[in-house]
Amino acid sequence: MKLRRTMLYLPGNNPNMLLRGWLFGSDGLILDLEDAVAVHEKDSARILVSRILKEGEFGDCDVTVRINGVDTDLWEKDLEAVVPCGIDGIRVPKVEGPETVRAVDEALNRIEKEAGIAVGTTKICCLLETAQGIWNAYDVAKASPRVDAICPGGEDLTADLRTQRSVEGTELEGPRRRVVLAARAAGIDAFDTVFPRINDDEGLVKETTFIKQLGFDGKSVIHPRQISVIHSVFMPTEKEIDRARRIVAAAKEASERGLGAVSVDGRMVDAPVVKRAVFTLTRAGLFEEVQ
Ligand SMILES: CC(C)(COP(=O)(O)OP(=O)(O)OC[C@H]1O[C@@H](n2cnc3c(N)ncnc32)[C@H](O)[C@@H]1OP(=O)(O)O)[C@@H](O)C(=O)NCCC(=O)NCCSC(=O)C[C@@](O)(CC(=O)O)C(=O)O
Ligand SMILES: [Mg+2]
To answer: Which residues bind substrate (predicted)?
Structure first.
């Protein structure tokens, strides 16, 4: 029952951001060892991130680490340094197919065993950043029970598709739809890619409204100022909450009285309507009302 609307990237070579990242109110943090870190800083960033995982503060945030890709000689060293620190999950970049997930899964099994952590604890979030990765989205999502989310990586993906990121996001529409569909079919979460224009709040609201409508659970962010903007888009309105409460109450009463169909505001309330109402209350953080 934990919301994952925003995941803030913290460059793994920046002690200030790594130490203070949890203070900005995002639902999750991604300590990044991949593209935010220059090649000559990979080893020092790994040491820094592992140290901060052991000694830093993260509040209630979901804590994940983006490791380097499996096509490098860095990813296993990354896992060995961060998994024993007890993180919620890892984010694997540029996943192209299920075999990548299986390789990471095997390494995690070994590292968790050696560290005395229950096997399967560390979840995997897969970044799909190539045409091939997007094509294989469902197989990736089902490749291991550890996979709890998939996300398109818009920056790398547009390069692979030989296009540019546009303000309208036309080039990402198909991949985004495929990722949500694959995630829902596999029963896991779908997160959207970062919005790169950090001072364009209007554009961020527009993009977040669109991806929320597609069915995404949340979005990765690169700057603290993007967090509250996204949360406000994901927060249901008072009117939506009020209606959801009345639907859930009507459904409960109907079930207690042994009735099948009921109506609220002149509209039939059936199972999918109740399901959507429960989801609205969940998104509003009213978890106790949906127990
Ligand atoms: C953009 C900029 C340099 C601007 O910095 P500036 O310092 O100019 O900003 P200011 O406005 O001056 O900051 C005001 C105060 O906030 C603090 N502050 C800023 N950002 C903070 C932050 N992130 N965490 C904590 N604190 C932060 C800052 O330290 C300062 O604190 P203080 O000095 O104390 O006042 C900075 O934000 C930044 O580095 N962002 C992260 C970049 C990054 O990780 N990229 C890789 C991940 S994406 C990717 O790889 C795409 C993908 O792979 C996958 C996908 O889509 O998922 C794909 O292919 O699509
Ligand atoms: Mg990328």
So the answer is: 66, 129
